[in-house]
Amino acid sequence: MSIDTLNFTPWSALFGGVLIGAAAAMLILLNGRIAGISGIVGGLLRPTPGDNFWRIAFIAGLVVAPAVYGLFYARPNIQINADSAALIIAGLLVGIGTRFGGGCTSGHGVCGISRLSPRSMAATGIFMALGFITVYGMRHL
Amino acid sequence: MIVISFFSGLLFGLGLIISGMANPAKVLGFLDLAGKWDPSLMLVMGGAISVGFFAFLYVGRRKTTLRGTKIKLPMAISSGCDNFAQQAFSYLKQALRAGRPGLLTSLSTEFVNNRPPIHFYLPNTCTSTPEYIAGA
Hints:
The complex is a heterodimer of chains A (141) and B (136).
Chain A: E1 2-3, H1 10-31, H2 37-45, H3 53-72, H4 84-101, H5 105-114, H6 118-140
Chain B: H1 2-19, H2 24-31, E1 36-37, H3 40-59, H4 82-98, H5 103-113, H6 125-128, H7 131-134
């Protein structure tokens, strides 16, 4: 295993992470909700009255973020090497998997671990391990 | 509630973009342990948790937020898929133990032994794969 020194961006990663943590902190301290993206979207698919607008607002914020970023900096380079069919299948798998697992990298990984939840730590460890294994299988076998 | 959610989402999105996590190649770089490994995602989570930890420490088991609204924290909810997952695992275990290939085991051994190259599954990538993904 060699470190990819060319693409490793420690400071922006750290700073971006702090922003993500701040966003999650804002949501729990001011709105009392967990900033788990798969949970927020998932909750919209089974709408309960009165619980939907904040979800739509959060997602709107996410969607608008690249445009806001683009006002100040050049949009970053995005590399996607899958065709549309693969993306759709991948999205479906993510959707199903996050509902089975009860959360995603923001729900379990950020909020759950911040709460020192053993369930979230286990979930994060498991999906990361499977991510490592899957990428190994697809790139090195 | 709506305004705060919007700005929280906006901040979250900006964090994703600035940290590089909006680029799938960076995430794949973190997951590629055997190739060139990009530890960035680890730092992103570290940065997020170092802030989130204090927020959730303050929240604890409180019922109300700073504004006085209700807090909704998940407490060990079953996703309802435990039965399904348990059954799936037990079938897999049975098939492996009996040496009798079930659909899953025969598919996976077939996959490992006679796997077509990856571009067979993703037709467009062989014409548009940069060196970074191709495993430089």
